[in-house]
Amino acid sequence: MSVAIDIKNALKKYGDNVIIPDLSLKIKDGEFFTLLGPSGCGKTTLLRMIAGFNTIEGGEFHFDENIINDLDPSKRNIGMVFQNYAIFPHLTVRANVEFGLNNRDYNKKEIGPMADKFLKLMQIYEYRDRMPENLSGGQQQRVALARALVIAPDVLLMDEPLSNLDAKLRLEMRQAIRDIQKEVGITTVYVTHDQEEAMAISDRIAVMNLGEIQQIGTPQTIYHRPVNEFVANFIGRTNLILADCEENEVDVLGHKVRIKDLDYKGKVKVSIRPEEFMLTDDKTTIKAVVKDTVFLGLNTHYFIELPNKQIVEVIKESMIDNMIEPGTEVYLTINTEKVNVYTEDGSKNLVIAHEN
User: Fold this and answer.
1) Which residues contact residue 326 at a Cβ distance below 8 angstroms, ignoring those fewer than 6 apart?
2) What is the number of H-type helices and E-type strands within the chain?
3) For residue 305, what are the β-bridge partners?
4) Do 162 and 58 sit in the same domain of this protein?
5) What is the pTM of this model?
6) Is 99 exposed, middle or buried (0-12, 13-18, 19+ CB in 10 A)?
7) 53 and 165 inside one domain
8) Is residue 128 in a domain?
9) Most buried residue, 187, 230, 248, 283, by CB count within 10 Å?
10) Is 304 in contact with 290 (CB distance < 8 Å)?
11) What is the pLDDT of residues 260-291, one digit of tens each?
Protein backbone atom coordinates (compact mmCIF):
# COMPACT_ATOMS: atom_id res chain seq x y z
CA MET A 1 0.00 0.00 0.00
CA SER A 2 1.09 3.59 -0.65
CA VAL A 3 -0.55 6.96 -0.13
CA ALA A 4 -0.90 10.37 -1.73
CA ILE A 5 0.70 13.28 0.13
CA ASP A 6 -1.02 16.65 0.35
CA ILE A 7 0.82 19.58 1.95
CA LYS A 8 -1.12 22.79 2.50
CA ASN A 9 0.51 26.11 3.45
CA ALA A 10 3.48 24.54 5.26
CA LEU A 11 5.44 26.87 7.55
CA LYS A 12 8.81 26.09 9.11
CA LYS A 13 10.82 28.51 11.20
CA TYR A 14 13.45 28.54 13.91
CA GLY A 15 12.72 31.51 16.12
CA ASP A 16 12.43 34.48 13.76
CA ASN A 17 14.29 32.66 10.97
CA VAL A 18 11.72 31.45 8.42
CA ILE A 19 12.97 28.49 6.38
CA ILE A 20 9.75 27.60 4.54
CA PRO A 21 7.28 30.53 4.46
CA ASP A 22 4.16 29.08 2.78
CA LEU A 23 4.48 25.90 0.73
CA SER A 24 1.73 23.79 -0.82
CA LEU A 25 2.33 20.57 -2.71
CA LYS A 26 0.48 17.44 -3.88
CA ILE A 27 2.32 14.15 -4.50
CA LYS A 28 0.40 11.38 -6.24
CA ASP A 29 -0.04 7.85 -4.91
CA GLY A 30 2.84 5.71 -6.21
CA GLU A 31 4.73 8.66 -7.69
CA PHE A 32 8.51 9.12 -7.65
CA PHE A 33 8.70 12.78 -6.65
CA THR A 34 11.97 14.68 -6.24
CA LEU A 35 12.68 17.84 -4.25
CA LEU A 36 15.55 19.51 -6.10
CA GLY A 37 17.46 22.65 -5.23
CA PRO A 38 20.71 24.16 -4.01
CA SER A 39 22.03 23.71 -0.47
CA GLY A 40 19.93 25.61 2.06
CA CYS A 41 16.80 25.81 -0.12
CA GLY A 42 14.64 23.90 2.42
CA LYS A 43 14.30 20.55 0.64
CA THR A 44 15.68 18.38 3.47
CA THR A 45 13.74 20.44 6.01
CA LEU A 46 10.52 19.68 4.12
CA LEU A 47 11.39 15.98 3.91
CA ARG A 48 11.98 15.86 7.67
CA MET A 49 8.63 17.59 8.25
CA ILE A 50 6.96 14.80 6.25
CA ALA A 51 8.87 12.24 8.30
CA GLY A 52 7.98 13.88 11.62
CA PHE A 53 11.59 14.64 12.55
CA ASN A 54 11.02 18.41 12.34
CA THR A 55 8.20 20.32 13.99
CA ILE A 56 5.52 21.96 11.84
CA GLU A 57 4.83 25.60 12.73
CA GLY A 58 1.95 26.01 10.33
CA GLY A 59 -0.11 24.34 7.63
CA GLU A 60 -1.40 20.79 7.22
CA PHE A 61 0.29 17.55 6.11
CA HIS A 62 -1.97 14.75 4.88
CA PHE A 63 -1.37 11.11 3.95
CA ASP A 64 -4.46 10.49 1.85
CA GLU A 65 -7.26 11.97 3.98
CA ASN A 66 -5.42 11.60 7.30
CA ILE A 67 -3.72 14.63 8.84
CA ILE A 68 -0.31 13.67 10.27
CA ASN A 69 0.92 16.95 11.81
CA ASP A 70 0.93 15.62 15.38
CA LEU A 71 1.46 11.96 14.57
CA ASP A 72 4.60 10.39 16.04
CA PRO A 73 7.18 9.42 13.36
CA SER A 74 6.89 5.76 14.39
CA LYS A 75 3.15 5.88 13.61
CA ARG A 76 3.47 7.37 10.12
CA ASN A 77 4.53 4.08 8.48
CA ILE A 78 7.41 5.59 6.53
CA GLY A 79 10.65 4.08 5.28
CA MET A 80 13.70 6.36 5.44
CA VAL A 81 17.03 6.14 3.62
CA PHE A 82 19.75 8.57 4.68
CA GLN A 83 22.84 9.99 3.02
CA ASN A 84 25.17 8.18 5.44
CA TYR A 85 23.37 4.78 5.16
CA ALA A 86 22.66 4.65 8.95
CA ILE A 87 22.86 0.85 9.09
CA PHE A 88 23.84 -0.85 12.33
CA PRO A 89 27.58 -1.72 12.27
CA HIS A 90 27.24 -4.50 14.88
CA LEU A 91 24.54 -6.41 12.95
CA THR A 92 24.85 -8.61 9.88
CA VAL A 93 23.19 -7.64 6.62
CA ARG A 94 20.27 -9.96 7.35
CA ALA A 95 19.88 -8.66 10.92
CA ASN A 96 19.84 -5.08 9.63
CA VAL A 97 17.07 -5.87 7.15
CA GLU A 98 15.08 -7.81 9.75
CA PHE A 99 15.41 -5.07 12.39
CA GLY A 100 12.21 -3.21 11.55
CA LEU A 101 10.23 -6.42 11.26
CA ASN A 102 11.34 -7.55 14.73
CA ASN A 103 10.23 -4.21 16.16
CA ARG A 104 6.79 -4.54 14.56
CA ASP A 105 5.93 -7.87 16.17
CA TYR A 106 5.77 -9.88 12.97
CA ASN A 107 5.47 -13.63 13.35
CA LYS A 108 8.97 -15.12 13.59
CA LYS A 109 8.17 -17.53 10.76
CA GLU A 110 7.31 -14.61 8.46
CA ILE A 111 10.39 -12.50 9.13
CA GLY A 112 12.94 -14.71 7.35
CA PRO A 113 11.04 -15.04 4.05
CA MET A 114 10.14 -11.32 4.05
CA ALA A 115 13.78 -10.35 4.55
CA ASP A 116 14.89 -12.83 1.88
CA LYS A 117 12.51 -11.24 -0.63
CA PHE A 118 14.13 -7.82 -0.30
CA LEU A 119 17.67 -9.15 0.03
CA LYS A 120 17.14 -10.77 -3.36
CA LEU A 121 15.35 -7.75 -4.82
CA MET A 122 18.29 -5.54 -3.82
CA GLN A 123 20.79 -8.16 -5.09
CA ILE A 124 22.52 -8.53 -1.71
CA TYR A 125 21.24 -11.99 -0.73
CA GLU A 126 24.73 -13.47 -1.11
CA TYR A 127 26.04 -10.97 1.44
CA ARG A 128 23.35 -11.71 4.04
CA ASP A 129 25.80 -12.99 6.67
CA ARG A 130 28.41 -10.26 6.19
CA MET A 131 29.03 -7.36 8.56
CA PRO A 132 28.59 -3.84 7.11
CA GLU A 133 32.31 -3.09 7.37
CA ASN A 134 32.92 -5.76 4.72
CA LEU A 135 30.56 -4.13 2.19
CA SER A 136 31.15 -1.43 -0.41
CA GLY A 137 29.31 1.89 -0.19
CA GLY A 138 26.83 0.79 -2.84
CA GLN A 139 26.16 -2.50 -1.06
CA GLN A 140 25.60 -0.67 2.24
CA GLN A 141 23.09 1.64 0.57
CA ARG A 142 21.27 -1.39 -0.83
CA VAL A 143 21.04 -2.76 2.72
CA ALA A 144 19.57 0.55 3.90
CA LEU A 145 17.03 0.50 1.07
CA ALA A 146 16.05 -3.13 1.74
CA ARG A 147 15.58 -2.33 5.43
CA ALA A 148 13.38 0.66 4.56
CA LEU A 149 11.18 -1.30 2.13
CA VAL A 150 10.77 -4.61 3.98
CA ILE A 151 8.37 -3.08 6.53
CA ALA A 152 5.93 -2.26 3.69
CA PRO A 153 5.81 1.51 4.36
CA ASP A 154 3.18 3.79 2.88
CA VAL A 155 5.87 6.32 1.88
CA LEU A 156 9.59 6.01 1.14
CA LEU A 157 11.68 9.08 1.98
CA MET A 158 15.24 9.38 0.62
CA ASP A 159 17.64 12.15 1.67
CA GLU A 160 20.52 12.47 -0.85
CA PRO A 161 21.17 8.71 -0.67
CA LEU A 162 23.79 8.63 -3.43
CA SER A 163 25.95 11.63 -2.55
CA ASN A 164 28.62 9.54 -0.77
CA LEU A 165 29.11 7.17 -3.72
CA ASP A 166 31.62 7.52 -6.56
CA ALA A 167 30.38 8.66 -9.98
CA LYS A 168 30.06 5.24 -11.62
CA LEU A 169 28.30 3.71 -8.61
CA ARG A 170 25.88 6.65 -8.45
CA LEU A 171 24.76 5.89 -12.01
CA GLU A 172 24.24 2.21 -11.18
CA MET A 173 22.39 2.91 -7.94
CA ARG A 174 20.07 5.57 -9.33
CA GLN A 175 18.87 3.12 -11.97
CA ALA A 176 18.48 0.40 -9.32
CA ILE A 177 16.42 2.75 -7.13
CA ARG A 178 14.22 3.72 -10.08
CA ASP A 179 13.64 0.09 -11.09
CA ILE A 180 12.84 -1.05 -7.55
CA GLN A 181 10.48 1.87 -6.90
CA LYS A 182 8.52 1.00 -10.04
CA GLU A 183 8.40 -2.67 -9.09
CA VAL A 184 7.23 -1.99 -5.54
CA GLY A 185 4.97 0.94 -6.56
CA ILE A 186 5.55 2.96 -3.42
CA THR A 187 5.09 6.74 -3.11
CA THR A 188 8.65 8.07 -2.96
CA VAL A 189 9.94 11.51 -1.99
CA TYR A 190 13.58 11.95 -2.96
CA VAL A 191 15.87 14.86 -2.04
CA THR A 192 18.89 15.83 -4.14
CA HIS A 193 20.87 18.82 -5.37
CA ASP A 194 22.01 16.84 -8.43
CA GLN A 195 19.93 17.95 -11.42
CA GLU A 196 20.97 15.04 -13.67
CA GLU A 197 20.10 12.54 -10.95
CA ALA A 198 16.69 14.17 -10.49
CA MET A 199 15.91 14.08 -14.21
CA ALA A 200 16.99 10.45 -14.54
CA ILE A 201 14.79 8.97 -11.80
CA SER A 202 11.78 11.22 -11.26
CA ASP A 203 8.19 11.16 -12.45
CA ARG A 204 7.94 14.81 -11.39
CA ILE A 205 10.34 17.34 -9.88
CA ALA A 206 9.80 20.34 -7.61
CA VAL A 207 12.59 22.89 -8.01
CA MET A 208 13.05 24.80 -4.75
CA ASN A 209 14.85 28.00 -3.80
CA LEU A 210 14.79 29.88 -0.49
CA GLY A 211 12.00 27.70 0.91
CA GLU A 212 9.69 28.24 -2.06
CA ILE A 213 8.77 26.01 -4.98
CA GLN A 214 9.78 27.63 -8.26
CA GLN A 215 8.33 25.01 -10.61
CA ILE A 216 6.76 21.54 -10.53
CA GLY A 217 6.74 19.37 -13.62
CA THR A 218 8.10 16.39 -15.47
CA PRO A 219 11.86 16.36 -16.17
CA GLN A 220 11.14 17.14 -19.82
CA THR A 221 8.91 20.13 -19.04
CA ILE A 222 11.32 21.63 -16.51
CA TYR A 223 14.30 21.24 -18.83
CA HIS A 224 12.67 22.52 -22.01
CA ARG A 225 10.36 25.13 -20.49
CA PRO A 226 11.78 26.53 -17.22
CA VAL A 227 9.37 29.06 -15.75
CA ASN A 228 12.04 31.58 -14.76
CA GLU A 229 15.74 32.40 -14.97
CA PHE A 230 16.59 30.58 -11.72
CA VAL A 231 15.17 27.27 -12.98
CA ALA A 232 16.79 27.71 -16.39
CA ASN A 233 20.20 28.19 -14.75
CA PHE A 234 19.75 25.42 -12.19
CA ILE A 235 18.47 22.70 -14.53
CA GLY A 236 21.22 21.93 -16.99
CA ARG A 237 23.35 24.63 -18.60
CA THR A 238 22.08 27.64 -20.45
CA ASN A 239 23.31 30.84 -22.08
CA LEU A 240 21.36 33.98 -21.20
CA ILE A 241 21.66 36.82 -23.71
CA LEU A 242 20.07 40.25 -23.37
CA ALA A 243 18.02 41.07 -26.47
CA ASP A 244 15.31 43.34 -27.87
CA CYS A 245 11.83 41.98 -28.54
CA GLU A 246 9.38 43.51 -31.02
CA GLU A 247 6.08 41.61 -30.92
CA ASN A 248 6.95 38.15 -32.35
CA GLU A 249 10.59 38.80 -33.22
CA VAL A 250 13.62 38.79 -30.92
CA ASP A 251 16.87 40.43 -32.06
CA VAL A 252 19.80 38.39 -30.69
CA LEU A 253 22.94 40.32 -31.66
CA GLY A 254 21.46 41.06 -35.09
CA HIS A 255 20.13 37.52 -35.57
CA LYS A 256 16.34 37.55 -35.81
CA VAL A 257 14.51 34.85 -33.84
CA ARG A 258 10.79 34.53 -34.55
CA ILE A 259 8.55 33.24 -31.72
CA LYS A 260 4.96 32.71 -32.84
CA ASP A 261 2.36 34.72 -30.88
CA LEU A 262 4.95 36.08 -28.42
CA ASP A 263 3.42 39.57 -28.70
CA TYR A 264 5.84 41.38 -26.37
CA LYS A 265 7.79 44.61 -26.73
CA GLY A 266 10.90 45.54 -24.76
CA LYS A 267 14.14 44.19 -23.34
CA VAL A 268 14.21 40.43 -22.75
CA LYS A 269 16.63 37.67 -21.79
CA VAL A 270 16.94 34.84 -24.29
CA SER A 271 17.85 31.43 -22.87
CA ILE A 272 19.70 29.16 -25.30
CA ARG A 273 20.92 25.72 -24.22
CA PRO A 274 24.49 24.89 -25.35
CA GLU A 275 23.18 22.16 -27.64
CA GLU A 276 20.77 24.59 -29.35
CA PHE A 277 23.53 26.74 -30.86
CA MET A 278 24.44 25.43 -34.31
CA LEU A 279 27.61 26.06 -36.30
CA THR A 280 26.93 27.21 -39.84
CA ASP A 281 28.70 28.38 -42.99
CA ASP A 282 26.12 31.15 -43.38
CA LYS A 283 28.03 34.40 -42.81
CA THR A 284 24.82 36.39 -42.33
CA THR A 285 24.39 34.80 -38.86
CA ILE A 286 26.20 35.54 -35.57
CA LYS A 287 29.96 35.94 -36.01
CA ALA A 288 31.98 34.62 -33.05
CA VAL A 289 35.42 33.36 -31.99
CA VAL A 290 36.29 30.08 -30.25
CA LYS A 291 38.16 30.89 -27.01
CA ASP A 292 38.53 27.42 -25.44
CA THR A 293 37.58 23.77 -25.96
CA VAL A 294 36.91 20.95 -23.48
CA PHE A 295 36.84 17.38 -24.82
CA LEU A 296 34.54 15.11 -22.78
CA GLY A 297 34.41 11.99 -24.93
CA LEU A 298 30.98 11.85 -26.57
CA ASN A 299 30.72 15.65 -26.73
CA THR A 300 33.10 18.58 -26.99
CA HIS A 301 32.26 21.82 -25.17
CA TYR A 302 33.28 25.03 -26.95
CA PHE A 303 33.49 28.37 -25.15
CA ILE A 304 32.83 31.02 -27.76
CA GLU A 305 33.04 34.82 -27.60
CA LEU A 306 30.11 36.70 -29.16
CA PRO A 307 30.35 40.17 -30.74
CA ASN A 308 29.25 41.72 -27.43
CA LYS A 309 32.24 39.99 -25.70
CA GLN A 310 29.94 37.58 -23.84
CA ILE A 311 31.26 34.01 -23.59
CA VAL A 312 28.70 31.30 -24.39
CA GLU A 313 28.97 27.52 -24.16
CA VAL A 314 28.25 25.43 -27.25
CA ILE A 315 28.11 21.61 -27.14
CA LYS A 316 28.76 19.51 -30.21
CA GLU A 317 29.25 15.80 -30.80
CA SER A 318 32.97 15.00 -30.79
CA MET A 319 34.65 14.13 -34.07
CA ILE A 320 37.74 11.92 -34.32
CA ASP A 321 39.95 14.48 -36.05
CA ASN A 322 37.94 17.67 -36.34
CA MET A 323 38.40 19.69 -33.13
CA ILE A 324 37.85 23.42 -33.62
CA GLU A 325 40.94 25.17 -32.30
CA PRO A 326 40.88 28.26 -30.06
CA GLY A 327 41.09 31.45 -32.12
CA THR A 328 38.97 30.04 -34.95
CA GLU A 329 36.31 32.36 -36.34
CA VAL A 330 32.90 30.66 -36.56
CA TYR A 331 29.28 31.53 -37.32
CA LEU A 332 26.36 30.55 -35.10
CA THR A 333 22.66 30.10 -35.66
CA ILE A 334 20.00 29.08 -33.15
CA ASN A 335 17.46 26.25 -32.95
CA THR A 336 14.49 28.52 -32.30
CA GLU A 337 12.06 25.71 -31.38
CA LYS A 338 13.63 25.27 -27.94
CA VAL A 339 14.53 28.88 -27.18
CA ASN A 340 13.02 30.42 -24.04
CA VAL A 341 12.43 34.15 -23.67
CA TYR A 342 12.23 35.80 -20.24
CA THR A 343 11.29 39.23 -19.05
CA GLU A 344 14.34 41.40 -18.40
CA ASP A 345 14.25 40.62 -14.67
CA GLY A 346 14.12 36.88 -15.40
CA SER A 347 10.95 36.30 -13.41
CA LYS A 348 8.64 35.10 -16.20
CA ASN A 349 8.93 32.85 -19.26
CA LEU A 350 7.11 34.63 -22.09
CA VAL A 351 7.13 31.53 -24.30
CA ILE A 352 5.15 29.53 -21.72
CA ALA A 353 2.69 32.42 -21.43
CA HIS A 354 1.84 32.30 -25.14
CA GLU A 355 1.86 28.47 -25.33
CA ASN A 356 -0.75 28.32 -22.56
Assistant:
1) 290, 291, 292, 293
2) 9, 20
3) 289, 311
4) yes
5) 0.92
6) middle
7) yes
8) yes
9) 187
10) yes
11) 878 899 999 999 999 999 999 999 999 999 99
